[in-house]
Design a protein that fits this description.
Blueprint: H1 19-48, H2 51-59, H3 65-84, H4 90-107, H5 109-118, H6 123-146, H7 153-174, H8 179-203, H9 210-238
Helix pairs in contact: 1-4, 1-9, 2-5, 3-4, 4-9, 5-9, 6-8, 6-9, 7-8, 8-9
């Protein structure tokens, strides 16, 4: 659930713009991130209100179906990234962000359904939301306060992403549960992703690529949310 990494050679870094332009870019980026999160909540609520959609969401976690879903999600992610990074077509950028929001809402159906059942309501989701926002804000603050270029984390994310996908596929093929510590490790990977994406917002995106920047942050936010929900479900299941 991670977006394509930015090719620095294709853009004029926003860090080279004047202070007003940089501030406006950051403002627009986080406004669009907020809109994306709100859009996700609306679409997710709509999906969960349709019994057939909930049933489909639960069925798609069974057997090989989940691998197909993950493959389709990765395809949509790459497509959305390519559209969003096209700074010459604003309509296409918004289509990319909208497409990614809907894809995230769809893939979240099973874990949110399980969270509602295990938590007997919104208890788990409320806690997960608060923890995700708090961690996201804290990690983002580190990037803004240090103003360092964390582009070197790209390799960490690439290797970590490949290992994570490999473990997920292996778990499905051989029927073993990845367990709580895998989710904890993925929260760590999501934290690294947030730091990396926020660094890109500060240093590397073009001033016209605020939609693409918000998509990168949104992808990292949703990855963090997914695995925090997963951890809370596991903890609740042990009580």
């Amino acid at each position: 659930m991670e977006n394509q990494y930015l090719d620095y050679d294709l853009v004029r870094p926003v860090s080279q713009e004047d202070e007003i332009t940089r501030a406006e870019f950051i403002k627009k980026t986080y406004q669009h991130l907020g809109i994306a999160i709100l859009g996700f909540l609306i679409v997710e609520t709509l999906f969960l209100s349709i019994p057939a959609m909930r049933a489909l969401g639960l069925r798609m976690t069974q057997g090989w179906t989940w691998l197909l879903v993950l493959g389709g999600f990765m395809f949509v992610t790459n497509l959305a990234d390519n559209w969003a990074l096209n700074a010459t077509d604003r309509k296409k950028q918004y289509m990319a962000l909208g497409l990614y929001v809907v894809a995230e809402a769809f893939i979240f159906i099973p874990i949110i359904t399980i969270a509602l059942y295990v938590g007997e309501g919104f208890s788990i989701l409320n806690k997960a939301g608060i923890l995700t926002v708090a961690l996201f804000a804290g990690i983002s603050a580190v990037a803004f306060m240090t103003k360092k270029d964390y582009s070197f984390l790209r390799n960490v994310l690439t290797v970590g992403g490949i290992l994570a996908i490999g473990l997920i596929v292996a778990g499905m093929l051989f029927g073993f549960d990845l367990g709580l510590w895998f989710s904890v490790a993925m929260v760590g990977l999501a934290a690294v992703s947030i730091l990396y994406q926020t660094s890109n917002v500060i240093n590397h995106y073009n001033k016209d690529q605020y939609v693409a920047a918000s998509l990168g942050l949104f992808a990292s936010f949703m990855l963090l949310l997914w695995y925090i929900i997963s951890i809370l479900i596991r903890i609740a299941g042990r009580d």
